[in-house]
UniProtKB/TrEMBL annotation:
Protein name: Olfactory receptor 56A5-like
GO molecular function, one term: olfactory receptor activity
Keywords (A to Z) from UniProt: Membrane, Transmembrane, Transmembrane helix
PANTHER family in UniProt: G_PROTEIN_RECEP_F1_2 DOMAIN-CONTAINING PROTEIN, GROWTH HORMONE SECRETAGOGUE RECEPTOR TYPE 1-LIKE-RELATED
Xref: InterPro entries: GPCR1_Superfamily_Member, GPCR_Rhodpsn, GPCR_Rhodpsn_7TM
Predominant localisation class: membrane
Organism of provenance: Seriola lalandi dorsalis
Amino acid sequence: MADNNSLDGGETLRRQINDQVMIVQILVMIFLCINLLLIVTFFKKECFYATTRYILFAVTLLSDSLMLFISDILLILSYFRFTMQVWLCVIISFMVLLYLTVTPVTLTAMTLERYVAICMPLRHGELCSTRRTVHCILIVHGISSVPCIVILSTFFASASLSFYKQYQICSVQMFTFYAWQDYITSAVQQFYFLVMCMIIVFSYIKIMKVAKAASGEDKKSSKKGLRTVVLHGFQLLLCLIQLLCPFIETSVLQINFRLFVNVRYFNYIMFNLAPRCLSPLIYGLRDENFFQALKHYASAPFHCVKALIC
């Protein structure tokens, strides 16, 4: 009787995991299609890739798309219990960890751009030129690489050479051997969280002061910038909570496997997919110029089909 209950429970869990994987595939496909449309729209108009906020927006789209694609591939490989050599997993995980951090750091840079545009409008053209934006993207990637270098450095210091040739299911958790590795990773991520939160709060307060003092069109622009910073802050919060998810999942795994499956699924939807659907909302739909271009290029295929039919 106990065996039957165990089999039924295992079958139910298996069916639940199947459903969750299918739902994730649908969501990832939808978000990747939306991001692709936005990226195409960005490159279609020259004024977009000559403006700092649109360039940084495109960086978040590319970063999010790459992150979604690689993480989804790892999810599918894990679902089918596919193993690979650890050295290959290290390379893939470096990409995942890098672009996991690129998005929140880029969001912080976008918040600073809004601060300069609203609080220092006379210096905006100088500080946010195309050349400086390229330098900013390089700095963003350099800053974003620090946490993954720290994580992998603690792994290199702990793993034996023979371990790299072993076949394992690729996941970030496999890089942790000792508790002190978690402490170092947590310290670095909390430091990043604190710095980015301070920048968001500083920008919000400064823009709020300008919004109160402004009048007419300036007041409208300032309030719109204020709402953008709030949305960036919320998106940044979701991205940064995601950095803590592996620690939560490791603790839950020691308690109950079914609970671990549910918590990991919730974390992936809430803190991985959700923040990456906010970027199209903030700049793809709320920005009037981008929205008009998006409408034009999105409707073009339908006009072609209509012309062929008629």
